[in-house]
From TrEMBL, chain A:
The keyword Lyase does not apply. Signal peptide: none annotated. This is Sugar ABC transporter permease. One of its GO terms (biological process) is transmembrane transport. Residues 102-295 form the ABC transmembrane type-1 domain. It comes from Streptomyces aurantiogriseus.
From TrEMBL, chain B:
GO terms for biological process: transmembrane transport. This is Sugar ABC transporter permease. It is found in: Cell membrane. GO terms for cellular component: plasma membrane. Its main location: membrane. Pfam families: BPD_transp_1. Residues 94-305 form the ABC transmembrane type-1 domain. Coiled coil: none annotated. The keyword Cytoplasm does not apply. The chain crosses the membrane at residues 34-54, 100-119, 126-150, 178-201, 232-252, 284-304. It comes from Streptomyces aurantiogriseus.
Length: 309, 317
């Protein structure tokens, strides 16, 4: 199948029905090729811009290669240039320190992913593998939580975070997402229910307690969905903008998405510092591309299960 | 479904009718599980009550108050709602948001469906599936900035191409008719791959023999799409639609970094107006009232879509 698909134009020897198909296939592959181009070309263009000087961009806007190849955009984004130098190169000289925002993003996303998945897994275990009074009712309540759009809870949650004096802290950004999402609980429960009862009973006969079963049997057996969910949660929290924008005011709690928007807003009088801005954009995007590349195969094949998100 | 999920919590899966001792043991074990379950559920329960249930109740409460964050909330009854109904900017926001959702969802659904079908009928390549997912790894902020640059009126490559073809440059994000469609399409670029993979997963559930049988009967791909793919994909498509529409109504990030609501409120989507009311003018009560309105609209759309598309039923088997 794949071999036929890869050589769509080599088909004229087969019978007519097949040939008509192959012409259609050639057209279909063309469309697919266009889709890939539209998907990937913007990334190349951003890289090309980040490696150009602002003067070069103005003089030579259509050159497919970097205009005046330089690393100055990246230096500016990473705060390696003095304000004077930066302004001379068309930057704002506003002193944004992307190393710090990178670290902040890593801290927030790691904290959220680690805690949220672990606590959700614990709850999912209780909902799927333990027997207790009122279990289905409590689960129904959690499911109803799926109906509330996250955005509705943001304003009241901000008021709460302010009352807790956690505004402008990384912990304040992470806190509302630390414990659970109805989706994570629902998603993991599905997988935990599919672990065969015999496996659990064998462990029970070996004298393992329910707690040990959770760590030694259930978690390892559901490792693929747990990894998929973790990567998607990491990406979601890394990319979140609205909530950190509300909570964070200063460098100490600024994450990459918010910093990028500020970089964009600090437009110098000479025009937007496209070279620096695209460099910063790449710095913000690269970690997720690497993370995805490591787990791509697993994620791509199990993403269908995340349909509710 | 396993035995555990379908049997009442207080009974063992194996029937021990008549045997008193095992029944007692069973009850003892139930109690044991109860304590353990309480421990296992405690963190998630805390999160649910404090950061989901409580803010939902509080959000509704705040919508009936005047609240500026500094002094305690003051009950004003329906004032915020009366103001909302008479606020032309609110209605403008709602109109702009609906326009955005229609373009965004319309284009995205058709494109995602096309990509999913191509991925299913043409190739099962995991690499291609990975590629179409890449924009989804970017934040909305990044996607917004990428296209802000490409579509820049003076220097953007998009406008350079348009100009080279002999057309006038288009100020995509600075013009009040172009801005909303542009933002809608930027977000299609970011989300279409993810949506396509969800639909692709749905397509995998359709047995391949159906296509083989139709092929033997001489059916074209076009015919197979309408006669096999569409009817059998319908339940998945319906769920994906509900989900993407809800997401689409909450557009904020892209607007914030590309147009900041302008020009002249042309892209002042509801969520952006709500944010401005709360954090720009410190009218948390009014912002909450508009959030409630959005929640009502979303719930109504969900119910309506669910009914219309019969999302809960399948035509397969």
């Amino acid at each position: 199948m794949a071999a036929v698909a890869a050589t769509p134009t080599k088909a004229p020897t087969v019978h007519p029905v097949r040939r008509r198909f192959s012409l259609g296939r050639a057209a279909a592959w063309t469309v697919m090729g266009l889709i890939v181009l539209i998907t990937l070309l913007p990334f190349y263009w951003i890289l090309r811009t980040a490696l150009s000087t602002n003067a070069g961009l103005g003089a030579d806007p259509t050159n497919p290669l970097p205009a005046d190849l330089t690393g100055s955009g990246f230096e500016r984004a990473l705060g390696l240039q003095s304000a004077k130098e930066a302004i001379a190169q068309g930057g704002a000289g506003g002193g944004l320190d992307f190393w710090r925002y990178l670290l902040n993003s890593v801290i927030v996303s790691t904290l959220i992913t680690g805690c949220q998945i672990f606590f959700s897994a614990m709850a999912a275990y209780a909902f799927s593998r333990l027997r207790w009074r009122g279990r289905d009712k409590v689960f129904g309540l959690f499911l109803a939580g799926l109906m509330v759009p996250t955005i509705f809870t943001l304003l009241p949650n901000f008021v709460l975070i302010k009352q807790l004096h956690l505004v402008d802290t990384l912990f304040g950004i992470a806190l509302p997402s630390l414990f659970m999402t109805p989706f994570a609980v629902f998603f993991l429960r599905q997988f935990f229910m599919n672990v065969p009862r015999e496996v659990e009973e064998a462990a029970l006969l070996d004298g393992a307690g329910k707690v040990k079963i959770f760590f030694r049997v259930i978690l390892p057996m559901a490792s693929t969905p747990i990894i998929t969910l973790s990567v998607l949660t990491y990406i979601t929290s890394w990319n979140d903008y609205f909530w950190p924008l509300m909570v964070s005011y200063s460098d100490s709690s600024r994450v990459l998405t918010v910093a990028l928007a500020i970089f964009r807003a600090q437009t110098p009088a000479t025009g937007v510092d496209w070279s620096g801005l695209t460099a910063a954009t790449l710095i913000a995007a690269l970690p997720m591309l690497v993370l995805f590349a490591c787990f791509a195969r697993r994620i791509v094949s199990s993403i269908g299960f995340t349909g509710i998100k | 479904m396993t035995v555990a999920s379908s049997s009442p919590p207080s009974r063992l899966p194996l029937s021990d009718a008549g045997a008193v001792a095992p029944a007692k043991k069973a009850r003892a074990r139930t109690r044991g599980d109860g304590a353990l379950a309480a421990v296992f559920i405690a963190p998630a329960m805390l999160g649910f009550l404090v950061f989901l249930l409580w803010p939902t109740v509080r959000g509704i409460y705040l919508s009936f108050t005047r609240f500026n964050l500094l002094t305690p909330a003051e009950w004003v009854g329906l004032d915020n709602y009366v103001r909302m109904v008479n606020d032309p900017i609110f209605w403008g926001s709602l109109t702009v948001t609906v326009e955005y959702v229609v373009i965004n969802i319309g284009v995205q659904t058709v494109a995602a469906l096309a990509i999913a079908v191509l991925l299913q009928r043409l190739t099962q390549s995991a690499l291609l599936r990975g590629i179409v997912l890449t924009p989804y790894l970017m934040s909305n902020v990044v996607a917004g900035l990428v296209w802000l640059w490409i579509l820049d009126t003076q220097l953007g490559i998009g406008n350079e191409i348009i100009s080279a073809l002999g057309f006038d440059r288009i100020p995509f994000l600075a013009d009040d008719t172009w801005a909303i469609p542009t933002i809608a399409l930027i977000n299609v670029w970011r989300h279409v791959g993810y949506t396509a993979l969800l639909l692709f997963a749905g397509l995998q559930a359709i047995p391949n023999d159906m296509y083989e049988a139709a092929k033997v009967d001489g059916a074209s791909e076009w015919r197979m799409f309408w006669r096999i793919t569409m009817p059998l994909l319908r339940p998945v498509l319906a769920v994906v639609l509900i989900m993407t529409v809800i997401g689409s109504f909450q557009v904020f990030d892209t607007v914030a970094v590309t147009t900041a609501g302008g020009p002249a409120n042309a892209t002042n989507v509801l969520q952006y107006y709500i944010y401005g009311s709360a954090f720009g003018r410190f009218q948390f009560g009014y912002a909450s009232a508009m959030s409630v309105a959005l929640l009502v609209v979303l719930s109504a759309i969900t119910v309506l879509q669910y009914r219309l598309t019969r999302a809960g039923q399948t035509d397969l088997g």
